[in-house]
Amino acid sequence: MLQILISLISFFIAISILVFIHEYGHYIVAKKLGFKVLRFSIGFGKPIFSFIGKNPDCTEYVLSPIPLGGYVKLLDEREVNVDESELPRAFNRKPVFQRICVLLAGPLFNFVFAVLAYFLIFSFGVPHLKPTIGFVEFDSIAYRSGMVIDEEIVNVGNTPTPTLESATLAILDEILSDGVIQITTLNKFGAFRNIVLDVRGLEKALTLPGALFNGLGFIPGPVRPAILGEVIDNLPASNAGLQEYDKVLFIDEERINSFSDIVYNVQSRPNELVEVVVERNGENLVSSIEIGYSSNNGTPVGIIGVRENTDIVSDILSRSIVIESYNFFESLSKSIFKTFQMSLMTLKMIGKMIMGDVSASNISGPINIAVYAGDSAQGGLLSFINFLALISISLGVLNLLPIPMLDGGQIVYQLVEAIKGSPISDKALILSQQFGFFLIAIIISFAFYNDFVKLLS
After folding, report:
1. pLDDT tens, position by position, 35-79
2. CA 351 from chain center: how many Å?
3. I need a labelling partner for 264 at 20 to 30 A (CA). Which of 38, 193, 228, 301 fits?
């Protein structure tokens, strides 16, 4: 219940901030260019707070309880009768260039906010995992490409990848670009290797939410050593004499490189008798273990009764953290680049979805966004700011799409008027708005469908 409450509060705070920033962009640019602003409204539903501003505009400022949108209403003689003295301040009487500036200002403010947010993050510094390879699944795409564990991904394509986040984004970008992932790795001996993962034709499956690394066949993160933690009494490992801090070297002559290897070999072999070689105090010891049996939703799963050594894993994790922090000018340039990078990736994702190369399940509705908001808020202030930056970029890009009812669609109307020398006809306007409403309804339907599917699963 507490988690739900945190998610709801975080969601309302995040959306309120981002809607305000977007609408304030429209508002302030309209004011500066001399448009008359009739109303500046945040939220939907019955107003919970409002007041009238000073002359000459007497703008009405409104706050409503449902922060899922907002609007800035400008004087327009196509909607109301306008006094002759105020005609020069009406939206439809202003030059097309100025109208476009007002329409662009909302998305632009979303991008500027993202730049400022990333600037704060880069300036204060945030901990990231290094992009090391912790596990490679047998006969997977990664395995066949020659990827091995305990190497660090230093470049993807031409992009340096000092953190796991940057490596993940670069891999996604390669998938969306041409489906060929060029990776450069560095091993502990200082040697570089170039490997290629060809995933052409698999773009849709790999871009499903949470499917990237499983689909490629490797798990990022530091290698979890095959060193035992707790050995549970009266279970096969304990009965065979295994002890805490034993390092498992082989299971039936198969080399064990990580704790994940132990899990895989044990779970896939219930009720089998295996020979296990462990290292203890510099000596190799051999034990025979009859793997136990458990049921996971009707599927037999092998167990031996050991847990990972959390002390050792914690120490390894602490040494696998890199702090991404820069000076003022580096932070500024990197924040601008990251905003551009994320905007371009969002556009690529939308384009691939339209072409059917990326699943529409990537469209998140309010429920999933609320979950992400809650998770990021619990991760700390900088984590929440990072979430705000990402959603702000998405809002900016989506609003620039040439869909009637969105800013991008309104900009198209202005450009058509500039080309043909007169406003778009009422009939064309109504038809295009109906089409735009239909498109937005489809997008919203997908978003809610994805939300409910994830809830049910």
Report:
1. 999 999 998 888 898 899 888 888 999 999 888 889 999 999 888
2. 17
3. 193
- pTM to 2 decimal places: 0.81
Are the folds of 133-222 and 228-310 the same? Answer: yes
Q: Closest Cα partner for 194 from 184, 209, 179, 202?
A: 184
Q: CA–CA separation, 299 vs 5, rounded Å?
A: 36
pLDDT in tens, 135-170: 888 889 999 999 988 899 999 998 999 999 999 999
Q: Which of 23, 152, 203, 308 is catalytic?
A: 23
Domain ranges within the chain, ordered by starting residue: 133-222, 228-310
Query: Among 145, 126, 123, 127, which Cα is nearest to 136's?
Result: 145
Token pair recorded at residue 374 = 């809650």
With beta carbons less than 8 A apart as the criterion, state whether 19 and 70 touch. Answer: yes
Q: Which candidate, 415, 416, 409, places its Cα nearest to that of 440?
A: 409
Give the tokens for residue 131: 């992009």
Crossing angle of helices 96-124 and 407-420, in 10° steps, is 150
Task: Please check whether residue 154 is in contact with residue 161, taking contact to mean a CB–CB distance below 8 angstroms.
Answer: yes
d(CA 337, CA 317): 29
- In the chain, the largest separation of any two C-alpha atoms, in whole Å, equals 97
Dist CA 95 CA 91 (whole Å): 9
**CA dist list (Å): 158 to 131, 184, 187, 199, 226:** 16, 9, 19, 18, 34
Respond yes or no: is residue 23 known to be catalytic.
yes
Domain 133-222, architecture per CATH: Roll (2.30)
What is the rounded CA–CA span in Å between residue 205 and residue 332?
35
Which pair of tokens denotes residue 408?
Answer: 């991008």
- If residue 191 lies in a helix (H) or strand (E), which one and from where to where? none
Instruction: Tell whether the model's pLDDT for residue 457 goes beyond 70.
Output: no
The token pair that represents 7 in the structure block: 């998610």
Q: Give the right CATH number for 228-310 from 1.10.820.10, 2.30.42.10, 3.10.50.40, 3.40.630.190.
A: 2.30.42.10
Which residues in 218-254 are b (16+ Cβ under 10 Å) and which e? bbbbbbbbbbbeebeeebbbbbbebeeebebbbbeee
DSSP 326-376: --HHHHHHHHHHHHHHHHHHHHHHHHHHHHTSS-GGG---HHHHHHHHHHH
